[in-house]
Amino acid sequence: AALPLDEYTCLDTGEVEAALARLDAQQGNACNLLAASRALPPAMARPRWSLRDYAVTRHLHAGYASDVVEARCRASGARCALKVYSLPDMPRLSRLHLLREIKLHTSLVGCEGVVALHAAFLEQGVVELSMGAGAALRAAGYNHVVLVQ
User: Fold this and answer.
1) How far, in whole angstroms, is CA 80 from its chain's centroid?
2) Which domains does the chain have, with CATH numbers?
3) CA quadruple 117, 123, 128, 129: dihedral positive or negative?
4) Which among 85, 149, 93 is positioned nearest to 121, based on CA atoms?
5) From CA 37, how far away is CA 12, in angstroms rounded?
6) Cβ atoms of residues 35 and 98 within 8 Å
7) Which of 12, 42, 43, 118 would you label with 54, given CA atoms 20 to 30 Å apart?
């Protein structure tokens, strides 16, 4: 089960935190999946998503709103890209655009020239991913991560 994406069109960090707490109380382990596409390889499916499930191999891009890294899924061995957003650092309108990006990309499975989105999830807390040679990606607060092929 995924978080009810349509209920969070503004994607306010406080609202998402409250939703995760409610789900955690109901299920004992909050579902942090925002969306999953038909392109998701079965070997990558899991009940709980985390940046720690990926071995980061290199940093590809640092933008004003996100970082993009190349990684390998520890469960499936699949090579993928992780696009990591720090929601607290994003203006409300940018969070809305991000939500639209997720909805759009999950519906564009199999479109030529479009990178397939596998899943999008929220993760709470500070996460640091090692990339070898002392490099690290540090993502604080709530992080929105888009996994792409």
Assistant:
1) 12
2) 5-148 (3.30.200.20)
3) negative
4) 85
5) 23
6) no
7) 12
Q: What would the two tokens of residue 60 be?
A: 């590809």
Q: Show contacts of 10-13: CB within 8 Å, 24+ apart.
A: 10/92, 10/95, 10/96, 11/87, 11/95, 11/96, 11/98, 11/99, 12/92, 12/95, 13/87, 13/88, 13/141, 13/142
Chain centre to alpha carbon of residue 62: 16
Q: In the chain, what is the straight-line distance between the N-terminal and C-terminal CA atoms, in Å? A: 22
User: How do 54-62 and 66-73 pair as beta strands?
Assistant: antiparallel
pLDDT, tens digit, 9 for 90 and up, residues 77-99: 988 888 888 777 777 787 778 87
The pair of three-digit structure tokens given for residue 65, joined into one six-digit string: 């709103």
Cβ pair 8, 122 in contact under 8 A: no
Q: Please, what sign has the CA dihedral across residues 26, 31, 36, 41?
A: negative
Tokens of 10: 């503004």
Q: What share of the chain is helix, strand, coil (3-state, %, to 5)?
A: 30, 35, 35
The least confident of 38-47, 70-79, 85-94 is: 85-94
pLDDT at 108 over 50: yes
